[in-house]
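pls design
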């Protein structure tokens, strides 16, 4: 009997050792080029450390031609989104054509293969422009980034692959925790792009079975980087929960009488991914808890840490998120953030946004500025403010309503007063940040500035005041 048991144990060890990892790491030339251009174009979701490096290492004689190329890339309109309406409204995360482009980039081994994969995803005019821009960007990317990073990032790739042996076990536990639908023989491809240096700011994004992840060329915290990859996979697992489970969890939130329920719901996806990837996965690999901040956002970091003991208990006991878990998560959020209903940082996490941009470029510029001051997880937007579609959206949708009025003040306020009688006593000719809760108990914030050049100043003022009051208030910008 003893010999049989030992043999069985050895067989289990052999099977576990021979199991293929769930993460396949690679360096993708296409991902590197796309990320390089997005970063240079000022996309707020890219690495600020890489952006600074590009700016400081761009030869002066190349600057003019390079930024003309970046301008052509910025003019591409390839991010068209849609939602799946049968899912709970709070879970309707937009899917986009840019997501399909990113999946193709991760999975492709060359630019020709990439363009073959995205044929039909974009109109030919956009496709040919992207093809020309990426071809011309190769020279700049090699000179500015890859020339001094190639050896280092390839070394990092070899180092991080050494941790792959534990990813399958971890993935199975996390899949059980989320109750997700995912085939065991469908691994994730992780395309890393180099960020020169030892520390700073990197980004990572999930696109179904394809992940994009920045990695410092001189970093040493490989368990932490694996944790980042699992963090992104957890977003996929959250999105891929069966429809029936999504509605059960949605019901647990909607039936709660807590004022924090909506906010806890909004943060749950990110907080769980942080607790699982940056918390549990790190401890799974190293045997100890990461003592540094897990996420560069006060709400998410604090919420993830507070949820961690419960998350760890569920994951290690192979339990799936249920109503009891959601009820406890709402209570924990309420305890951690008693002033959440009034704080801009929380109110802007998910919002409806309206402005008077005259073009998509102007709108994107305003959104980029807003994104530098506040983390925005979900934003439904419309412009100009007086457009019937904008007014209909502002009149019916629940949640934070943010308006940036930087032109046509008299016309805009005339339209807004029909929706919000609270504005009757407000002077539209005075710059200020106006805030109140309307009759539907929705937070309404109106940034009223004389022109677009004053938007950033107003945002700085908002970061100083930090929160709105219970009644109508106006913060002067003089």
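designed seq:
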């Amino acid at each position: 009997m003893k010999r049989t048991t030992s043999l069985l144990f050895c067989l289990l060890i052999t099977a576990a050792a021979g199991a293929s990892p769930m993460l396949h790491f690679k360096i993708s030339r296409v991902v590197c080029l796309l990320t390089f251009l997005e970063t240079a174009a000022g996309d707020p979701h890219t690495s600020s450390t890489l952006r600074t490096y590009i700016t400081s290492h761009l030869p002066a004689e190349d600057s003019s031609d390079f930024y003309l190329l970046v301008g052509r890339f910025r003019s591409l309109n390839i991010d068209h989104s849609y939602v799946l309406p049968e899912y709970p409204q709070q879970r309707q995360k937009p899917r986009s054509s840019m997501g399909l482009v990113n999946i193709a980039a991760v999975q492709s081994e060359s630019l020709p293969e990439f363009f073959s994969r995205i044929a039909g995803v974009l109109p030919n005019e956009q496709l040919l422009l992207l093809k020309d821009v990426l071809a011309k960007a190769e020279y700049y990317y090699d000179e500015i980034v890859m020339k001094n990073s190639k050896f280092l990032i390839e070394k990092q790739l070899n180092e991080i692959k050494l941790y792959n042996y534990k990813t399958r076990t971890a993935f199975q536990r996390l899949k059980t925790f989320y109750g997700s639908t995912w085939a065991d023989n469908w691994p994730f491809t992780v395309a890393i792009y180099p960020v020169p240096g030892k520390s700073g700011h990197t980004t990572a994004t999930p696109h179904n079975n394809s992940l994009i992840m920045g990695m410092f060329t001189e970093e040493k915290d490989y368990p932490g980087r694996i944790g980042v990859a699992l963090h992104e996979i957890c977003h996929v697992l959250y999105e891929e929960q069966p429809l029936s489970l999504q509605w059960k969890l949605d019901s647990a939130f909607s039936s709660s009488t807590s004022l924090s329920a909506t906010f806890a719901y909004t943060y749950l996806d990110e907080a769980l991914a942080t607790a699982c990837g940056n918390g549990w996965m790190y401890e799974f690999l190293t045997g100890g808890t990461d003592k540094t901040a897990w996420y560069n956002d006060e709400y998410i970091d604090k919420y993830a840490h507070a949820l961690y003991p419960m998350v760890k208990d569920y994951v290690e006991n192979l339990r799936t998120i249920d109503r009891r878990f959601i009820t406890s998560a709402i209570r924990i959020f309420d305890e951690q953030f008693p002033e959440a209903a009034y704080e801009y940082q929380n109110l802007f996490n998910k919002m409806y946004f309206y402005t008077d941009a005259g073009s998509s470029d102007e709108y994107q510029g305003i959104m980029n500025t807003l994104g530098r001051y506040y983390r925005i997880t979900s934003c439904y937007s419309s412009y100009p403010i007086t457009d019937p579609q904008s007014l209909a959206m502002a009149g019916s949708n629940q949640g934070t309503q943010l308006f940036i009025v930087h032109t046509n003040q008299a016309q805009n306020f005339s339209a807004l007063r029909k929706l919000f009688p609270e504005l009757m006593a407000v002077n539209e000719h005075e710059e200020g940040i106006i805030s109140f809760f309307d009759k539907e108990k929705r937070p309404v914030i109106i940034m009223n500035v004389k022109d677009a050049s004053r938007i950033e100043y107003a945002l700085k003022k908002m970061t100083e005041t930090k929160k709105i009051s219970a009644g109508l208030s106006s913060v002067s910008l003089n």
